[in-house]
Amino acid sequence: MNIYQKEILLDQKPRVFHLITEEIKSAIPELKLIRTGILNVFICHTSASLTVNENADPDVRKDFETHFNSMVPENSADYLHTSEGPDDMTSHIKSSILGCSLNIPVTDGKLNKGIWQGIYLCEHRNSGGRRKLVLTLSETEKN
Amino acid sequence: MNIYQKEILLDQKPRVFHLITEEIKSAIPELKLIRTGILNVFICHTSASLTVNENADPDVRKDFETHFNSMVPENSADYLHTSEGPDDMTSHIKSSILGCSLNIPVTDGKLNKGIWQGIYLCEHRNSGGRRKLVLTLSETEKN
Amino acid sequence: MNIYQKEILLDQKPRVFHLITEEIKSAIPELKLIRTGILNVFICHTSASLTVNENADPDVRKDFETHFNSMVPENSADYLHTSEGPDDMTSHIKSSILGCSLNIPVTDGKLNKGIWQGIYLCEHRNSGGRRKLVLTLSETEKN
After folding, report:
1. ipTM, 2 dp
2. b/e sequence B11-38, b meaning 16+ C-beta within 10 Å
3. For chain A, which has fewer Cβ within 10 Å, the N-terminal or C-terminal residue?
């Protein structure tokens, strides 16, 4: 039984949805050594989030931005927590809808995901700064 | 410490929300041997998803379909990624709102969930084909 | 390798979003002994949910209530499953959007989360009763 845990700091990214599968895989090369396990990816922030979605067509990520801006509108007069601007409270809501933690199975040294699945960093703030992730890779032996 | 990992392919299902708790439990009979652990269920697709919800009244699953069709409308002119039809981009968005990965505790050979909780396959495409799941069951011994 | 699993019953809480980080940490003091691992928090209900979000300003939790009431409206005539009142079906939908299961990394005896992140119990029912959580803390040794 082995475990690898690593904190990484992503470069600052503009507000939209970003494909970060390769950044994660290169940060944790021990993945190649794992026969059976789970990779947990956790984002340590409340105004950015993580999801898994389509990794081929960049329009999908643009459409995510369009949809979430419409579903969680910044021009709502109903929010109280807006001291940091109109993208403050909406970012918190978007992050909870999408979530802060992913669990992806690992098999024979690879993420056992669909070929069209990629890991997205969802940056909801106009200027969110660098984002910290905690990667926890649990290897468990078959008996 | 034991781990059991299995890939299963569900039969093609029509677009709606489906209760698949029994399909999952019967695919991984090793569950009965586990004293304490976690079951991870992961769906390898970006236009279908997984959630846990009410397992008794079939109307709940109909109401999920109604709600998600309203919250993520197919008649929106705003989406760019629509080459496979109006249920293409909306399925990607629904799948990220609901999620692709479930983690359910296991205690004394059973899923330790509420009596009203069941596992849903959320099929968002009109014709989504067969869906692949990866089941990872981690047993961990109490000390 | 150690695992600690515990069921806890929260006191009944009114319908809104509640910060329960301290309740969870005090229920599982073994957390302090863990060098590297994952804490899974699972809620055994279909009309309340769990999320991670901002832990400082109580207005954030009020704004969550406002937003979710608007995004999943109780006055919709479209729902079939309403036998327990207008907050019945909407609570099921809200709980699946937010989720029933959290996975948070543990490092050196502490939850390895951002300083602004707290664990929310999202009580969607007007009178939801006591809520049961299953806490599963998996410790895994570095090799």
Report:
1. 0.96
2. eebebebbbbbeebbebbebbeebebbb
3. C
